[in-house]
Specification:
There is one protein chain. The chain is of the alpha/beta class. It has 15 helices and ten strands. It has three domains: 152 residues, Glutamyl-tRNA reductase, N-terminal domain (Beta Polymerase, domain 2); 137 residues, Rossmann fold, CATH 3.40.50.720; 84 residues, no CATH class.
């Protein structure tokens, strides 16, 4: 019996958990051993892809046994110390969820950039180890396409809704562009690194100065902006050099000011973005922006992103429809490949028979004509058998078409 697209999708099952149901440290532990988990599940299943990030742990299976689903659920609960919540989705619901994850619609920050790459990495790793199936390959390929389309055709990933993204977004909105500007970064912690990485991904400053108490850690920040001229300087040099900078990002702790109002007199830096909490810079209206300004920027960006939600969901439904059509055609493609292999063998056999005539000094064009005529007659004979069966039955199924053609061509090859 031919398998429909809906029947194929019913084989897909997702079991896992996410930040809405499990503590972050639980997800961190699962993420840390995801390759070991993938190998364990891969050798025990028909096919599996494991997606593990700081916000989710999800295993996507192709027709898994109930015992394996119970094993994954037990692993999640035991890792969570009995307080984890297991989510299980089946069929089109599991696939739609994956599409939404890839599109960034299931992330804590709507439109999250990183998750699409994480989905791609999870799929490629499973394929590399031989743990995917044709069905999972098609599902994940379509999920990545849906995620890419949502980002390219909507504005759901535009603007920074986290503090770091909002910091860079705010400076771009005020100045128009950071391209070719002189940038300063104060600090070398995670926030400073994230700012340097993001701003150098989006634009190319003419100069990057990193100020930090520990020069070696400052070099790690500078290294994130490969190809940009820069220098690492001690924090004490900031007051002396601050007027050489167009945009200054401050990300330090300690609760003390690194600059005074006097240091910020004049027109440089054009703006200061301070993500420190509490602030490490004084208030200067219109030029110095603190966390409250970043929160406002993040909310503004989120409102803009949410406007694109209906368009993003429409793209996902369109890609789901395409996937169902693709899967519905798959039995026909597989049947045609079986027939094509036999037709190739038949053509080779008839050509070999005809070329034996060359020994009798038959002209080459006559040899080719003999081969083509013999091949055509046998193909027509196989089709005639198919048409006769259709006439007798009134109609034939895809399985019957494949059975008739494969059987008849196999017999002709043997004759």
């Amino acid at each position: 019996m031919a398998v429909t697209g809906e029947a194929l999708t019913s084989r897909v099952v997702m079991v896992g958990t996410n930040i809405n149901f499990a503590r972050r440290e639980v997800l961190s532990r699962l993420e840390g051993k995801w390759e070991d988990i993938l190998r364990d599940l891969g050798f025990r299943s028909r096919g599996v892809v494991v997606l593990a990030t700081c916000n989710r742990f999800e295993a996507y299976f192709d027709e898994p046994p109930k015992s394996l689903l119970a094993h994954v659920a037990s692993m999640i609960v035991s890792t969570a110390g009995g307080r984890g919540a297991v989510v299980e989705l089946r069929g089109i619901d599991a696939i739609r969820h994956l599409f939404r994850v890839a599109a960034g619609l299931e992330s804590r920050i709507i439109g999250d950039h990183e998750v699409l790459g994480q989905v791609r990495l999870a799929w490629l790793k499973a394929r590399e180890l031989g743990f995917t199936t044709p069905l999972l390959d098609e599902v994940f390929h379509k999920a990545l396409r849906a995620g890419s389309r949502v980002r390219s055709e909507t504005g759901i990933s535009r603007g920074g809704v986290g503090y770091i993204g909002a910091a860079v977004q705010l400076s771009e909105r005020v100045l128009g562009s950071l391209e070719g500007l002189k940038i300063g970064v104060v600090g070398a912690g995670m926030a400073a690194r994230s700012i340097a990485n993001l701003l150098c991904m989006k634009s190319k400053p003419s100069l990057l100065l990193v100020f930090n108490r520990t020069v070696s850690r400052g070099r790690e920040v500078l290294a994130l902006c490969g190809g940009v001229d820069g220098e690492v300087l001690p924090l004490d040099a900031l007051r002396e050099l601050v007027r050489r900078i167009d945009v200054l990002y401050v990300a330090v702790g300690g609760g003390h000011l690194v600059l005074s109002e006097e240091d910020l007199e004049g027109n440089t830096p054009k703006i200061v973005i301070d993500v420190s909490n509490p602030p490490a810079t004084p208030r200067v209206e219109g030029r110095v922006f603190h966390m409250k300004h970043l929160e406002e920027e993040a909310r503004r960006a989120l409102r803009e992103r949410l406007k694109w939600l209906p368009a993003a969901e429409s793209i996902i439904e369109s890609e789901l429809k395409d996937l169902l059509e693709l899967l519905a055609k798959r039995p026909g493609r597989e049947a045609s490949r079986s027939v094509a292999r036999l037709l190739s063998r038949l053509s080779q056999r008839e050509l070999a028979r005809a070329t034996s005539s060359l020994k009798r000094e038959v002209p080459p064009d006559e040899v080719l004509e003999m081969a083509m005529n013999a091949y055509t007659k046998k193909v027509v004979r196989a089709l005639q058998r198919l048409f006769e069966e259709a006439s007798l039955k009134g109609s034939v199924t895809l399985d019957e078409v494949e059975e008739i053609l494969v059987g008849e061509l196999s017999r002709l090859i043997r004759d």
